[in-house]
Design goal:
67% of the residues lie in helices and 5% in strands. It has helices at residues 6-17, 29-58, 68-81, 99-108, 115-141, 146-158, 160-166, 172-187, 191-204, 209-228, 241-266, 272-280, 288-301, 306-324, 332-348, 363-385, 388-438, 452-457, 481-491, 538-552, 556-569, 574-586, 590-603, 608-620, 624-637, 642-651, 653-665; strands at residues 85-87, 90-92, 444-447, 460-463, 496-500, 506-507, 513-517, 520-527, 534-535. It has a five-stranded mixed beta sheet, with helices on one face. Strands 1-2 form a two-stranded antiparallel sheet. It has a two-stranded antiparallel ribbon with strand order 6-9. Strand 3, helix 18 (452-457) and strand 4 form a beta-alpha-beta unit. It has 27 helices and nine strands. It has 667 residues and is mainly alpha-helical.
């Protein structure tokens, strides 16, 4: 008998040292069904609690995002008019990022007209399906450690952001369900289930391309290993040729239909939202470095996630080691999907949106690699110390501790859901209702937040950031944008404008309606008046906000320098001169403050804040007649403004009493 080589001796020695740490919980069929039932119950009850808590505090149902009403608006029109349109049966456009989700909502409108509960139920339903398939998928990776599959499923069930997003009216849980189900069918070599779910991922979000590429890369690697060393890779399964034909046919038809629909509606293969978001949230909007630091690194290592990040790293190291050794690891698609999705957003769209929702589909794969990495670490540790019981105990403690931490974070996040639902309601929903009740039917509204405003106002919308109106896309983030918006407002017969002032700000005229609080994301509605309405450019508006920050931090010289530059860029902004006057007053420069306030009032005679400020300045300087004159000029065109009347009353109470009497008698 031939003497074994040194390499073989080393392998035999290592095999003898290997300690088996695998252990199953003996589950009967009934117990297995009970576990699935409990997971499904948790996946319904936990997100529902967020809705219940928010309603108990706010006394109304809402979403923490404006985007859900975009889906609902398309779905309502699809159900009522059979048209993929954004205003009744008009404005047909490929403005939905997730047409399959829109179609599901449209079908739901035949069951109920309650848009809130329709969205909540669909989101929770797909969360439950995600949990079910994730548990089944985890079981394929831990066939001898079913307790790890249960632990992984519980981590997903308790994840704060997945619970959060399931009741926001978004397509995210549908997307996660399709991704996980597709991965499961791929593992099971179920050609039809795999092809259908893989194709539908693209109908849910275009960034499913990352998952499709990950699966393709994994399969080609399988084929390579199988052809290279068929005897050493007998455990690697490949689809039969007939199954590959089925997959290609079904997947091709589904994806081809998606492209065809978009092309017929808008003349492009992808929805308007794709081009609009790429244009608006470009690298100039947020740097790629900041994206990686804040929206990737901090997001996936924040609070409870830190406990699974270290095992995740170990899982990635083990995966890389296996691949280098040309040893197949079935978690290759999970890692490639995570890496590709992050890369796609880093390169094309460095913005994960509110609450990191574009990154949320990563979580099931993140959890899977983390649980796998933990097992591999403890397997290595068991070999090192030669004690499987101790090591298994440590692994149980790690997963149990992580579940407790996840539970704590889940509970805390209910407050975020409640607060952000209120935030959106008092801005977008209340603005929409005001527009419905205070504008003539047939009015056209220009806005950038097109969800709730379109859904509840029952008014035609002009979307100035291009999700619905693609003609705006080419001008986004250009110096010509503000001018182009004004051109389109005239061209498209816009009557009213509804803008968050952080996005777009109108100056030189009063707002008809203001919604918001704490001076953050204030929604304002303006009547569009040709020749008078003045929209600040994006550059000037950003400068105004930057100057406000400098003033808040008492950097007055720097703030003044910025404001002077803005005044040179746009000499017709009364707000800029008013802010300059404010800085002058803080630095005790009364002469300059007077000059800038007079300029602000010249541009905007109805500028009450400027009028009151100038009157106060004159009063402090003991120029009583000048103070009175400023107020009287304002009252000549705004005779019922009580704040200004009170100010004048303080200057000349006797005379003011007779003026008040005359004005009220003349009403």
């Amino acid at each position: 008998m031939a003497k074994p080589s040194k390499k073989q001796e080393k392998q035999q020695k290592n095999q003898k040292k290997t300690v088996d740490i695998s252990f199953d919980i003996n589950l009967t069929h009934t117990t297995g069904l009970l576990i699935i039932a409990l997971l499904l119950i948790f996946s319904v009850v936990l997100p529902y609690y967020y809705v219940h808590y928010a309603y108990s505090v706010n006394h109304y149902n809402s979403f923490p995002l404006d985007d859900p009403w975009i889906h609902l608006q398309f779905a309502k029109n699809l159900a009522e008019y059979g048209s993929f349109s954004y205003f009744r049966n008009e404005l047909v456009t490929a403005g939905s990022t997730s047409p399959i989700y829109t179609i599901i909502l449209a079908a739901g409108f035949f069951v109920t007209k309650n848009e809130m509960w329709l969205s909540y139920i669909i989101g929770i339903l797909f969360f439950a399906l995600s949990v079910f398939y994730f548990y089944r998928l985890s079981g394929t990776f831990f066939p001898k450690d079913n307790w790890l599959a249960i632990g992984a499923a519980l981590l997903l069930v308790l994840d704060k952001w997945i619970n959060f997003i399931s009741v926001t009216g978004m397509e995210t849980t549908l997307y996660i369900f399709l991704l996980v189900a597709s991965y499961y069918y791929y593992r099971k070599m179920n050609a039809i289930g795999f092809a259908v779910t893989l194709g539908l991922t693209f109908w849910t979000r275009p960034d499913a391309l990352a998952f499709i590429a990950a699966i393709a890369a994994d399969y080609f690697f399988r084929v390579y290993l199988k052809n290279r060393s068929p005897k050493e890779n007998t455990g690697i399964e490949l689809f039969a040729k007939k199954d590959l034909y089925k997959i290609a046919g079904i997947f091709g038809i589904i994806v081809g239909a998606y492209f065809a629909m978009n092309f017929l509606i808008s003349g492009s293969l992808l929805p308007n939202t794709y081009s609009a978001k790429l244009a608006y949230y470009s690298a100039e909007f947020r740097s790629r470095a900041e994206f990686m630091k804040v929206e990737v690194w901090e997001y996936f290592t924040e609070s409870a996630y830190l406990l699974i990040f270290i095992p995740f790293l170990f899982g990635v190291i083990k995966l890389g080691s296996d691949t280098i050794k040309l040893k197949y690891n079935a978690l290759i698609p999970a890692f490639i999907f995570i890496a590709l999705l992050i890369f796609m957003y880093w390169y094309k769209l460095p913005y994960a949106h509110r609450f990191g929702r574009y990154m949320m589909p990563i979580f099931p794969f993140y959890i899977l690699l983390s649980v796998y990495g933990g097992r591999e670490f403890f397997r290595w540790f068991a070999n090192y110390i030669g004690d499987s019981k101790l090591v298994n105990g440590l692994n149980v403690i790690l997963i149990a501790g992580t579940l407790v931490y996840f539970s704590s974070e889940y509970y805390k996040t209910r407050k975020i859901f409640q607060d952000q639902s209120r935030h959106i309601y008092i801005r977008q929903v209340e603005t929409a209702k005001w527009l419905k009740n205070n504008t003539p039917e047939g009015s056209i509204i220009a806005t950038h937040d097109v969800g709730a405003i379109a859904y509840y106002s029952d008014r035609k919308i002009v979307d100035v950031v291009g999700l619905i109106n693609p003609e705006f896309i080419s001008k986004l983030n250009t110096k010509e944008f503000a001018g182009f918006v004004e051109e389109q407002i005239i061209k498209q017969n816009v009557n009213y404008m509804a803008f968050l002032k952080e996005w777009f700000q109108v100056v030189n005229q009063p707002a008809l309606f203001t919604a918001g609080e704490n001076a953050f994301e204030i929604m304002q509605v303006y009547k569009y008046i040709p020749g008078k309405t003045h929209l600040l450019s994006t550059e000037v508006n950003s400068g105004i906000q930057y100057a406000s920050q400098l003033i808040s931090s008492r950097q007055y010289p720097q703030a003044m320098n910025v404001l002077k530059q803005l005044a040179a860029m746009d000499p017709n902004s009364s707000l800029t001169y008013f802010m300059m006057a404010y800085v002058n007053s803080l630095t005790n420069d009364g002469t300059s403050a007077e000059k800038n306030l007079l300029k602000a009032i010249e541009l905007y005679p109805d500028y009450k804040d400027a009028v009151l400020s100038l009157s106060n300045l004159y009063r402090i300087q003991q120029k009583t007649e000048d103070s009175r004159s400023v107020l009287n000029k304002y009252l000549a065109i705004n005779p019922q403004d009580t704040a200004v009347i009170n100010q004048l009353n303080k200057l000349d109470p006797v005379k003011m009493d007779s003026v008040n009497t005359e004005k009220f008698n003349s009403k």
